[in-house]
Amino acid sequence: MVSPPHEAMHRIFQHDPGLFSRLSRFLGVDVPTPVKATALPTDLTEASPVERRVDTLLRFETAEQGPFLLAVEAQGKKDPDKPASWAYYAAYLWTKYRLPTALLIVCQDHATARWAGQAVSSGPPQLPTLTLRPLVAGPHNMPLITDPEEARADLVLASLAAITHAADPVVDVILKALSTALRDVPEDIADPIVEFTAQGLGNRPAKHLWRNLVAVDLSFYTSYISEEIRAQSRAEDILVILEQRGLDVSEDVRGRVMDCTDPEVLRHWLTRAVTAAAAEEIFGDE
Questions:
Q1: pLDDT tens digits for 183-205?
Q2: Is there a contact between 215 and 226 (Cβ–Cβ < 8 Å)?
Q3: Which of 25, 215, 263, 272 is packed most tightly, with the most Cβ within 10 A?
Q4: 205, 211 in Cβ contact below 8 A?
Q5: Distance between CA 273 and CA 282 in Å, rounded?
Q6: pLDDT-based confidence at residue 273 (cuts at 50, 70, 90)
Q7: Is the separation of the CB atoms in 254 and 286 below 8 Å?
């Protein structure tokens, strides 16, 4: 099953194709700024029954080097079968489009990033034939954007920095800088950043901090994730009130409260929690 972090790590390049050029300096290469970028179909299946899909595929037009393709793959862990698949992607795309093809692997932990960056050859040592050398973006080379002004200068890069550092303690500072930078940003620009960041953090502890930051610093946004964040915060408040009043909160009550995403219903339950004689009474006649 495809996880939210997996989707965020590659779809962010579809949202802002120019991101690849801006982060290339952190990868040790010089990629010119594209004058045009086009998202291409990701299905690389041939007539054979084996289905192959690259995560994100972009075509770049540049003034300096001409057109080239960028295949972006999100990789959450080591997988011995992946290098062969990546080599297939590069060879197939080169054959199909007759364009130079670059491969970028995005990771969230140091071990996976080191593994993904190793050169792999298809032939024996004395006959390498086809050698795969992907670029890798991960916690080892992505910037630590902890200054709100720096985050404001490139919100998409700041979001990717948070995603790739999701497992590092410094992610808390990155997230605070990002939420601060988003305060004065138009909603149509800020909403995708909020969503990508939330997706990219997955189930890691930092997701709770991001939810709180969005609920407090970005309370005027109405995207589905920010509404979900506020709903969860209100649900937690209901349980805290019941517990602080010494009422017994059963697992059924706790589950019903935490599963509710309707802000109006939660508001009624929160009001009742202040005076209810038993936890179950917050539901009234519902």
A1: 888 888 988 999 899 889 988 88
A2: yes
A3: 215
A4: no
A5: 6
A6: confident
A7: no
Look up the pTM and report it: 0.74
Give the separation between CA 272 and CA 283, rounded to whole angstroms: 8
Return the bridge partners of 104, or none.
72, 135
Beta-carbon-side half-sphere exposure of residue 160 (alpha carbons within 13 Å): 29
C-beta separation of 138 from 107 below 8 A: yes
CB 166 within 8 A of CB 198: no
For residues 138 and 108, the answer to whether their CB atoms sit within 8 Å is: yes
Q: Which amino acid is at 251?
A: E
Lowest pLDDT segment from 159-168, 169-178, 227-236: 227-236
Q: How far apart are the first and last CA of the chain?
A: 36
Of residues 161, 136, 15, the one with CA closest to residue 83: 136
Name the more confident of 48 and 24.
24
- Tokens found for residue 104: 């970028």
**Cα–Cα distance, 125 to 24 (Å, whole number):** 30
